[in-house]
């Protein structure tokens, strides 16, 4: 009985020294031991490929802003607000023209 108790105490002490008190096992990468997964870009259709061209991204952003400004102009509650969005739409339109979009 005494030897068993000593053995259990030694095992518990070894486990306590192996990991700091209150340590949590790393679960940030649950598939670490799993088979390698091919990159996500290999299975995406061509339309889902990210645009790497800065000019294309700038034109896309300007078109998106034009749509947002036009929507806000339609939803404007006052004449002054509508006028502001009309001027802003023209500014973005001129900016997209200068950018060559």
In short:
With 101 residues, the chain is mostly helical. The protein has helices spanning 2-18, 54-74, 79-99. The termini are far apart.
Q: What is the number of E strands?
A: 0
Oligomer: single chain
How many angstroms separate the termini?
85 Å
The helix count comes to: 3
Return Rg in Å.
Answer: 31 Å
Residues in helix, %: 55-70%
Notes on the structure:
The chain is mainly alpha-helical and 101 residues long. The chain has helices at 2-18, 54-74, 79-99. The protein starts with a helix and ends with a helix. The model has no long low-confidence stretch (mean pLDDT 76).
Ordered list of secondary-structure elements with their pairings:
Blueprint lengths: L1 H17 L35 H21 L4 H21 L2
Helix pairs in contact: 2-3
Task: Name the features.
101 residues; mainly alpha; single chain; 3 helices
């Amino acid at each position: 009985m005494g030897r068993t108790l000593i053995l259990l105490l030694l095992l518990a002490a070894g486990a306590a020294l192996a990991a700091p008190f209150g340590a949590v096992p790393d679960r940030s990468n649950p598939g670490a031991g799993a088979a390698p997964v091919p990159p996500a870009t290999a299975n995406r259709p061509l339309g889902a490929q990210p645009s790497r061209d800065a000019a294309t991204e700038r034109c896309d952003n300007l078109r998106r802003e034009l749509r947002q400004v036009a929507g806000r102009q339609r939803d404007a509650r006052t004449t002054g607000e509508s006028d502001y969005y009309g001027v802003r739409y023209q500014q973005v339109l001129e900016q997209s023209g200068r950018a060559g979009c």
